[in-house]
Structures are given as C-alpha cells and as structure tokens.
Amino acid sequence: MGITPPNPLAGDDKIDELWKIPRKFQKPQRIRLFIWMVLKDPLLTNVNHTRRGLGDNSACGICDHNFEDFLHVIRDCSTTKAIWAQVPWSIDEVFKSSLCLAKQFASVQKPKSGGVIHDHNGKWILGFNRYLGMCLVLDAELWAIYDGLDLTLDQGHDKVLINTNSMEVVWAIQDMHSKDSNSTLIRRIRQLLAKID
C-alpha cells in the first residue's frame, strides 16, 4: 500500500502548504525552528532509526514505550515528564493559584496581550487575550498582567504568581517614583495587587 502523489486536478497540495508555515510565521526564530522540527521530524529517534534501516528496535531506550517518536521524546517519556515537572508553576505548597502570563508581543498590525491561568498543580484553568490597537510592548505586558489579575481575583483566588520576562514592567509596577507611576493602568494593577495576600 502506498500514498499516491497529489493530483493536479484535485487542487493545491495541502501537505506542500504545511512546509510554508515556518517561513510565514512571524515569531522568533526558535519558535519557527520548533515548528519546522515538528513538521519535519528530524530527530534520530528510535522510530526514525528503524524507518531509515539504521536499527530494528523502535522502543524508547529509557522507559521501554513501544514507539520513541518526536512527541514521545519531548512530552510523553517518563524522564521528559519528570523534567517538565520541574517547571516552577507547580509550587502548590506556597501558592493556591498561579498566574502565568504568556503574552503576545504587540505588533504593528494586530497588537494583543494575553495569558494563561494555571492552578497550583500547573493545570490550565483559562486563557485570555485582548486586542489593544496601537501600543507599545510595555503596554501589552501591563494589560496582560492587569487582565490576568482581574480574572484571577474574579475566580476567587487570593494567592498569585505572575511570570513575565519584562523587567521594565516589574520596575514600573514596583517603583512608585518612576515616570510611569502616574499611569492609570499601573495604578489599577497596584490596586489589584493590594487585594492579594
């Protein structure tokens, strides 16, 4: 049994379109590379070794799962799961709820902010986003924090961990004497933070 080549009468080759995604995707290079790797499956996993005639065992050498493919290596293997468990959103002895902000950077065309709210075990509770119009990256970060805090408090949580990769945002929120301290949005964030233990 084989796969027939695309028929020109059937329209565009849909698989060929998949390979264009990483090039068109306007995100950092590491994200485009990851998408390419998912589509291309270049890792020499045991499944790929077997497929290329370089071996005869497709099982995972660590956990003995039947198929060691790309997804198994990055997500499903017991060792990989143990590594993912080390990610600091699972600090349940300290925080009842954690807020992990995964904002989208403001772009000229469609600036948005958003985030993801997890519980103390890292389990997804909800995601959110907001269309902002023209704004700075700093503003997008601040809106993500404001919306995340507001939603978290509405859900009844009073312990929050906020993750951001912008020290400028952290300084703007913490420094009462900065030039940004008169910002209404920063004042509203501080008011929400005052409601949290």
TrEMBL record:
Pfam families: RVT_3 (PF13456), zf-RVT (PF13966)
Segments forming domain Reverse transcriptase zinc-binding: 20-84
Domain RNase H type-1: 112-195
SUPFAM superfamilies: Ribonuclease H-like (SSF53098)
InterPro entries: RNase_H-like, RNase_H-like_dom_plant, RNaseH-like_sf, RNaseH_domain, RNaseH_sf, RVT-Znf
GO molecular function terms listed in the Swiss-Prot or TrEMBL record: nucleic acid binding; RNA-DNA hybrid ribonuclease activity
Superkingdom classification of source: Eukaryota
Protein name, per record: Reverse transcriptase zinc-binding domain-containing protein
Species: Gossypium aridum (American cotton)
